User: Fold these one by one.
Assistant:
Number 1:
Amino acid sequence: MAAPSKPDLAYCPIPDPSLPLDDSILHQSSSDGIVPGHFRGRSLLSVSDLSRPEIRRLLTLASFMRDAVLSKGSLQLARGCLMGLIFFESSTRTSSSFQAAMQRLGGMVVPIMDVARSSVMKGETLEDTMRCLQCYANIIVMRHPETGSAARAASVLDIPLINAGDGIGEHPTQALLDLYTIQAEFGRIEGLNVTMVGDLKYGRTVHSLAKLLTHFPGKINLVSPESLRMPDSVKDVLRQHSIPFTEHTSLDEVMSETDVLYVTRVQRERFDDLNEYERVKDAFIITPELLTRLHAKSSLRILHPLPRVNELHLDLDKDPRAAYFRQMKHGMLMRMAIIAALLGKA
């Protein structure tokens, strides 16, 4: 996480001090070495900016958020705070979960979802758009099709920026909610056999998740068509952290030992050559019959960042091993934790 020049702007005023503020989360003791205010004013651009104690802290905060939402429905940690939400690419789950997260925290949202009607179409630069948006907000969430755009945007801001996906670069909040889902399903993260399958070249979610898993050693299997293999830059990170990984073009050799099957969609929008897309789009289709034939574990958990096309058969939805909709519920909780932390509220 990169610290902005004026982190005090990330603090939100409480409009009426006489109103009760639910600050129980603020006073939880911590043994992870993270002091109060440690995250305040920082931006979340890449999972590489996070240390293991910081990741653990966010996982813990997400669990607090779960308990608070179940017991109270909402909190008032972000009362008086406003989030600017700007998406230059289409989104359903990420945008709605961020809005729900901010509102569950008692904050407000200014969504800019139709960029085609914004000043960007008049030729305004990304930097100027960000400078203007920060005049109204305490924190900004941005998705953009250009890799590295989040770093560009954050460089001109005095308030925190959350990268909600920058091209084929990273998607840090998705990877954090994926990690939280794995912990919730297994009670641990370390020592698991994680198989990532599908589009590993353009899939920013697997880029971020693979990097996060270097803090929780296990084994990683990378399964994809030859043309969609994991980028060398990500594999280099795995090597630097001595994380064992293997590469395959078929699930046959790894399914029986897999604990977490992380499935990705082959993204049509990332292909310049549509003939290549047609050639690989159906390379991996996960069905109940496939799981049986390849002797998948009864304890297997199937994750997917969604949306799906046809890579997950609808019959899988009834299988208790399918965790992708539980994964979506975890998304709001983790994003609540991230927002509260960056605003200095937890």
Note: The radius of gyration is 20 Å.
Number 2:
Amino acid sequence: MTNEKSDFSRFGKAFQENLVQLMLMDRVFCDQIKEVMDIQFLELKYLQAFVQRIFDYKDKYKVHPSYETMTSIVRNTLEDENEALQKQVRDYFARIYTKEVDGADYVKETSLDFCKKQKLKEAMLKSVKLLQTASFDEISKTINDALKLGMSNDIGYDFLVDFEKRFEVKSRNPVTTGWDEMDHLCKGGLGRGELGVVVAPTGAGKSMVLVHLGTEALKHGKTVVHYTLELSDTVVASRYDSCYTQFAIRELHQYKDQIFEMIKDMPGRLIVKEYPTKTATTNSIRLHIEKLKMRGIDPDMIIVDYGDLLRPISSQKEKRNELETIYEELRGIAAETNCPVWTASQTNRSGLNAEVITMESISEAFNKCFVADLIFSVSRTVEDKTINGGRIFIAKNRNGPDGLVYPISMDTSNVSIKMLPSTGETPNDIVTKSVKEQEENLKNKYKKYKRKSKTENQDV
């Protein structure tokens, strides 16, 4: 029988530091592992001292410490330790204050498995001693009690125990849209775990807008995974070339060398995955993301072009129910991957030449609006397309105001989309103005017709 060390030393220093950080970050995990963990399992003294402070605070105040509370604890409860250990504890806490844990699920699962096995081993050794003196029921209870320790005990958000959590500053880590006006409205862009939807009629440029959003993320060093369900992967990649370099799409072949020189130092990373229309489901996306993570590619933004073209996991009687489910699952992917997900949705016929597209124009399933965090529409009339214009309407915004209209400049030749300052007009103002302009045009045409007819009658 091999003599395995009964501590975490074989997992290394980084593993142990990540474990302790997760115990501070995650109250539920800390409660779970506290039942089976012996502080001596940590081979590093400064980590033992740090965890001991967490446990002491929880036992005394019956709440889990926040980062801010731990700052005070580290400053004021280390007097009995030697100076070298005090410095190690403070240096460690300073390192993890803004650091993210890599491979959190692995650390949690491995550490819990190790600790539970140690508790079970203790119970089995105790049971051997009890064989001669105790009853079967007592021995069985000893083993069963050990097996129950460390089981998941997440009962939900405890109003008292999780008191500190309510006052922690929540970090959305939003990814910019590239439009200052939009970022200002939604507090920096689309945040982690959030779903954004671009609504537009066919031919208005939904895919172009999604490429713009992806390109802005790339400029800020993000890893973007773009799923295309309508266009080929090379067509989508060419649009990114154009958007990033501002060379016209039709001229890309002429500037191949210059484009490569410009994109080779691009801060972010782009993966474009093509699925034939209506063949991929949200599970297809989940599996692909898992494969990427296995290769060390962790997405910072996911783009699905577009959600209406995904195949539902299970067929339902009505299409609207299927679409509603698809968007709920996309919202779930955003939460699971902890990164923003952008997609697009088609409007119904009323949006084809509308001055402003509201949520009433969303095709088939209005309920898919419910799960989205940010929805904006892009409307471009025939006249707008001739002058590279259009409008964006903020239909829904969980992180700020909505119901606002912004004019845009949209040049589809090089995927250049700019959001211009608001004119202060509301959708009703624009619709009313459009109706008046149409009436005025009809009046002018009627006057011209009357003058022409009168002239012709005089000539006769």
Note: Strands lie at 195-200, 223-228, 269-274, 301-305, 341-346, 374-379, 389-397, 404-411, 416-419.
Number 3:
Amino acid sequence: MALGMIGKKLGMTQVFAKNGNLVPVTVIQADPCTVVQQKTAEKDGYEAVQLGAGEQKAQRLTKAAVGHRKKAGKMVRVLKEFPGASDVTLGQEIKVADLFKAGDKIDVTGTTKGRGFQGVMKRHNFSGFPGSHGTHEYFRHGGSIGNRTHPGRVFKNKRMAGRMGGLQRTILNLTVVDVRAEENVILVEGSIPGARNGWIFVRKAVRGEESSHG
């Protein structure tokens, strides 16, 4: 079986655990994923399973992409490869109840919300300049960025204003609070990266721990 699934973040809510604690959860819509390709050590040099999710019109894909998806019999929108050996077959559907159950530890990957071009105070938590004592029209600047003649340049990775967010991030060791197989939904404790309806990837935790809820 594949080691992960593709899903969509629906939002957050809260549920009661068996011990009576109120637990904040993220709702993930994990509809059945289609096996688009199975990679083997003999042919590809490593073992992995490529899954597809969503639907896409064929005219919006390149001919190569259409041909690749035709082998699985479905024009999927999103592709994701999950490493590891598996006994799945081409075109097989993977359901959420086949992989996860309440109490499992998972890793969730998503794309953070894009914030656009931001200054150093919002992007890097700079404190800014004093509000008085001679400061004039320089309240939210980053300060000096360079040196004198030597080395005479700005060092790489200098924290400055720029584009913020829109990056892929993975949260490790989240707990599955509940799996609702009839609705293809996973309830995950805590928050995950991304906006509502954003695509996310769920896999079994690389460094799993025991569940903290009864």
Note: The radius of gyration is 23 Å.
Number 4:
Amino acid sequence: MWAAAEGNLDAVKALMHAGADMKAQLDTGFTAFFFAVREGHLDVVREFLAAGVDLTATMQPAGGVGERARRQSLPTTPLMLAIQNGHFEVALALIDGGADPNDLSMGFTPLHIIPAIRRPDSSDISDGAPPRGQGSLSSAEFVREIVKRGADVNFRLPEEGKERIPNTSSLIEPAGSTPFLFAVDRADVPLMRLLLELGADPMMPNFNGTTPFLAAAGLGTQEPAEEAGEEAESLEAVKLLLDLGADVNDVDNNGDTAVHGAAYNMYPKVIELLAANGADPQIWGKPNKFGRTPLFIAEGFSGRLPRPHQGTIDVVTKLMLEAGLSLEGKRPEVIDIYAPKPAEPAAQ
């Protein structure tokens, strides 16, 4: 394990020749092979491949680690571990050695995880920077190569295992989602264009009826300050999908529209673009199944922290008044999770 993690090929060869057990595993689930993959040591990985290592074996914490770690961990294959760490040359070597380019062991395929690798969310546990992998192969070049090797660019995630999704603050429903939908959710326009070139269907929704167009406008946003993407990128993504024939008045199964999405993301310029392209206030002005209109969302009634955004409020208000729509209505309840809790009565 130590030799593999250090990339010491001579030591690995000597230990293998002496009969070292390749299957020996730590309580964390790591074997020597997984250490080599995690660190991106391509020559050591190839040595294990030549020795017949099991590419279908998964890594998952066992009895010696904390309960929290076990609950938070998903079974990880060597291929997915390589991709998560940005080691794309190692990943291709694994595929060439027999790994499945549509590996679904973690609940999503390699192509689904690429958007999160390229553009991580900024949050308490992430600085928003992609991993610095070993090798010279870029994520875009890797996408081209893995598609050549059989990765399905229109793979829709199954209903089962839908709780498994790359680390994200998005609320996009994974079941039925394609890699393209995940790329749109990250406002990764270069990746969107690449996937389109490789045959991605730009209109395919997930099983909740969320289309890439709705995601491009911002639908699925939970924490605007933490998610990847900026308003200028959202504008570019929306324009691209409109040019491809997206319906500006799409409505998903929750009753959400693109204007709802832009309100969640606090993107007033996107709302103006939608309006200029025919977004109908008689459609988007209605409450979704949670009782939220774009105006209520902009005012901060979005079901999480009360965060009104004046620029979005102003644009939505103007459009509603021009359409003769009332600004009145019962606002949904918002529970401020940071509000002081009432003091408990003193014990008698």
Note: The CA atoms of residues 118 and 144 lie 15 Å apart.
